[in-house]
Amino acid sequence: MPKDRQIRGVRRALRGARRGRSTSAIPMCPSPSKRSSTYRPISGLKQHILEADLRPAIQRVYGATLHANSRAARFTAGGSCHVSGWLHKHPRARNVSSSSSPPKAPDTSLFVPVSLKTDFSMDGSVGAELTQPLSKEELLKVLNRFYKRKEMQKLAADHGLDARLFHQAFISFRKHVLEGSALPADLHIILSDICCGAGHIDDIYPYFMRHSKQIFPMLDCMEDLRKISDLRVPANWYPEARAIQRKVIFHAGPTNSGKTYHAIQRLLAAKSGVYCGPLKLLAHEIFEKTNNAGVPCDLVTGEERTFMDLEGRASGHVACTIEMCSVNTPYEVAVIDEIQMIRDLSRGWAWTRALMGLCAEEIHVCGEAAAIDFIRELMYTTGEEVEVHTYTRLTPFSILDQAVESLDNLREGDCIVCFSKNDIYSISRQIEIRGLECAVIYGSLPPTTKLSQAKKFNDPDDPCKIMVATDAIGMGLNLSIKRIIFNSLVKPNVNEKGEKHMETISTSQALQIAGRAGRFSSKFKEGEVTTMHRDDLPVLKEILSQAVEPIETAGLHPTAEQIEMFAYHLPDATLSNLVDIFVSLSQVDGLYFVCNIDDFKFLADMIQHIPLNLRSRYVFCTAPINKKQTFVCTSFLKFARQFSRDEPLTFDWVCRHVSWPLAHPKNIKDLVHLEAVHDVLDLYLWLSYRFMDMFPDTALIREIQRELDDIIQQGVQNITRLIRATDTSLTSPVRTQSSRSGQLSGNSGAADGRYLTNSRGPRGQRDLGEMTDSSLANRLVRDGLLTPDLLRQLQREFSKDPKEDSTNQQVLDTEHHNNNNKGKKRRKK
Ligand SMILES: Nc1ncnc2c1ncn2[C@@H]1O[C@H](COP(=O)(O)OP(=O)(O)O)[C@@H](O)[C@H]1O
Ligand SMILES: [Mg+2]
Fold it and tell me: Domain named Helicase C-terminal: which ranges (predicted)?
């Protein structure tokens, strides 16, 4: 083709583009619907597998129409639902599905540009041959003029490039134009024309936009992404549940009112059923109770599957942790325990899924009365009625008019509730000093250790009559407690943004714990509740006098399929980035919120560099691990690495990794490590149910976990000895904060040494004790400030003049007074 005809062809095509006509000269990204043939699928996932996997999810997301039988509910927008041929709309129903609401503007700060190769070698130097080489200086001027054109900025904004993206895209485009070894012929010609005054600056726009879409592929599929992340009608996600008309029975009442008992009675009488509980302990308890009642029942938790049938066939009944319940198996009865947890910022989605998705003729929901209205409202969206059974406490409890004030006033059946492990250590040590025995329960103990501590405390023949516990006792353990003593009323909490802060406990939390006082069928027919410190008592009374805040929203979580569909559109994004974009685009109606995905993202970032296919990566990131435990996190990373090499994680490999066999703990640090190893073995078991070939030695791991359980149990039985050993082995002050101090350990204040490390831990407490005799220490205690240098100075003073525990108590009282005032101020705020 003659050169000038070729140039004219390109120019004609460009004029068309400027007028908005499509042109074959500018190959834009394929539309999402055409992508299956041209688009690169998720690395490691075969296209056909992906499509097969996605079909149900695609149907769910794109097609709201359900294949309903004659009894099914058919959903329409605007909080109404059509049930069995009649349409009703509840007067209080909020805007349940708002398809008419404007699409949510994406958070473009999450759009990470894809890096492109700078080499446009496809066309070689055809552009330069057709015209002439371009001067970089001239080009820079032209490009900068383009960047400053208001009209171009506006046009780009109309196509999804806000100011931030426009800027980023321009920088990238300029780099490609100036640094690419050879430009595509069409762009070269256009730029050449502009440089010599024959073209218009706006002719750059289509090329700029093409580049922008290459580096921000989401621009081209925003509508699809919005549809995938549309979480407005969760009722539609479970066609099997919608195909049956379920009866919902709400057992409402305070703790210890027999709610779960009554729901379980119904479960036992049914031909088939599922119990969904918030904790492994509760699933175990119901599993045992059901089997003891002569009804074969299996157990399913993240880390454990026990089938009563010797050949491994499923029994008619199953007790499980709520995340594990099947929404595809039909049951006669389902029990969803502790329904108020539907608002839990991290785990709420599991209750939403169970409530909306379980295929059972009867759904028995147990929980606080504060959830009744909300559950009714959710059930309007499924067209199901809610029958409410209300219960009152089987044993009454009263709030005492006196605080305990000193550990000398402890009595049989007392349970001191703390919100930090350091408080647990410190108090159990002080109890031991008084010649008393105590049981200890906190969240990170293995379930069997918790049970054995509970048994020790409940046993009337055991000398142990006192319990020191965190709020881990709020659910799932039967405890014969006469009096609950709140050692503090502030607790570390995580808000919607995932930020940690200290908060006074809510009425719901206080009631859950206080409700443990007095136990049906124990010798303590009436419970009592009070505080350790005098100043806390009126605060506790105020908290308990308030009505429990009604529940208003339920959690949701993106599914693996939804994230896979995102990855299909955005194959270069990291998993963490995918979920961020998902959450930023997701639309939920007023009844729901998207659960906090920080832990998921934390794990996703940790293993991003490890080559895994998306489905495996997603599964790994949903592992329930505590990110604060460094050893568990490093183990997680090692597991993922080994997995990615396709090397099975054998028993020997794990033993080497955790240095098994492990010795009995000599101090608290050892005990904490053993707890972490227990969690690592739990992680192995959890993964073994998802990747059986790669984690083959489940039985052996379970065996050593049982041995480890025993070691931990013995350690906890002698916890005060471990605390003593820790106390003397410490050479530097403990840099942690008590829950009463109102600050978290490791927060910025504590970390940079600006604050006094007023730990209630054994060591911290002794430091404080000794400080009372020093004028310097007194001043620092009063001011609540201590620099590292001053701390060292205090240590020197302390080594000269050791003091007794009685002094500690005085200091604690002073400290308590200060903290309490701080606490009050916080509450007023
Ligand atoms: N009607 C009853 N007969 C015998 N034991 C009961 C009865 N109701 C409740 N219990 C027992 O009382 C304790 C508390 O009941 P539970 O159902 O767990 O209360 P909730 O779920 O309201 O906290 C449990 O040990 C339970 O077995
Ligand atoms: Mg219960």
Answer: 399-567
Ligand approaching nearest to the C-alpha of 518:
1
Tokens of 235: 């009722």
The reported pLDDT for the residue numbered 131 is: 66
Q: Which pLDDT score is estimated for 112?
A: 85
Give the per-residue pLDDT at 761: 32
**CATH number among 1.20.1250.20, 3.30.360.10, 1.20.58.1080, 1.10.287.80, domain 597-723:** 1.20.58.1080
Domain ranges in the chain are 2-30+115-215, 52-106+220-394+558-596, 397-545, 597-723, 775-829
Atom of ligand 1 nearest to the CA of 366: 21
Distance CA 570, CA 98 (A): 27
Tokens found for residue 378: 């959710």
* Residue to mutate, 259, 261, 395, ligand 1, most ligand atoms under 8 Å from C-beta: 261
Query: What's the topology of domain 2-30+115-215?
Result: Rna Polymerase Sigma Factor; Chain: A (1.10.1740)
Of ligand 1's atoms, which has the minimum distance to the CA of residue 478? Answer: 25
Tokens 């899924």, residue? Answer: 353
> pTM here?
0.75
pLDDT at residue 17, as a whole number: 42
Q: What per-residue confidence (pLDDT) applies to 794?
A: 54
Contact 374, 551 (CB under 8 A): yes
Per-residue pLDDT of 638-690, as tens digits, reads 999 999 999 999 999 999 999 999 999 999 999 999 999 999 999 999 999 99
Look at residue 526 in the predicted model and tell me its pLDDT: 92
Q: Which residues line ligand 1 (CB under 6 A)?
A: 253, 255-261, 366, 394, 478, 520
State whether CATH 3.40.50.300 applies to domain 52-106+220-394+558-596. yes
Q: Look at the block and give the residue holding tokens 């010795």.
A: 663
Predicted local distance difference test score (pLDDT) of residue 440: 95
CATH of domain 397-545: 3.40.50.300
Token duo for residue 388: 């409410």
In whole angstroms, give the CA distance from residue 419 to residue 40: 50
- The residue type of 117 is K
How far are the Cα atoms of 284, 414, 477, 497 from residue 448, in angstroms, in the given order? Answer: 10, 22, 11, 34
Residue 465, CA atoms < 13 Å, CB-side half-sphere? 13
Rounded (10°) CA dihedral 400, 401, 405, 410: -30
pLDDT at res. 695 = 98
| Eight-state DSSP code of residue 278 | S
Identical fold for domains 397-545 and 597-723, yes or no, is no
Provide the 3-class DSSP secondary structure of residue 504. Answer: strand
Instruction: Note every long-range contact of 682-688, with CB atoms under 8 Å and residues 24 or more positions apart, other chains counting.
Output: 682/303, 683/623, 683/625, 683/632, 683/635, 683/636, 683/639, 684/639, 684/649, 684/654, 685/302, 685/303, 685/304, 686/302, 686/303, 686/623, 686/624, 687/619, 687/620, 687/623, 687/639, 687/649
Query: How many Cβ atoms from other residues are within 10 Å of residue 107's Cβ?
Result: 12
Q: How many CB atoms lie within 10 A of CB 214?
A: 18
Q: Is 755 left (phi over 0), alpha (psi -120 to 50) or beta?
A: beta
Q: In the numeric block, which tokens belong to residue 399?
A: 């709030």
Phi and psi at 360, nearest 5°, equal: -135, 145
Task: Tell the residue nearest (CA) to atom 7 of ligand 1.
Answer: 258
Q: With 0-12 CB in 10 A as exposed, 13-18 as middle and 19+ as buried, what is 151?
A: exposed
| Closest by Cα among 459, 484, 446 to 255 | 484
Whether 340 and 355 have beta carbons less than 8 Å apart is answered as no
Tens digits of per-residue pLDDT, 736-767?
Answer: 334 444 333 333 333 332 222 233 333 333 33
Give the residues of the chain that fall short of pLDDT 70.
1-102, 117-131, 181, 495-498, 727-829
pLDDT value of position 26: 30
Q: How many CA atoms lie within 13 A of 13 on its CB side?
A: 17
- DSSP, res 466: E
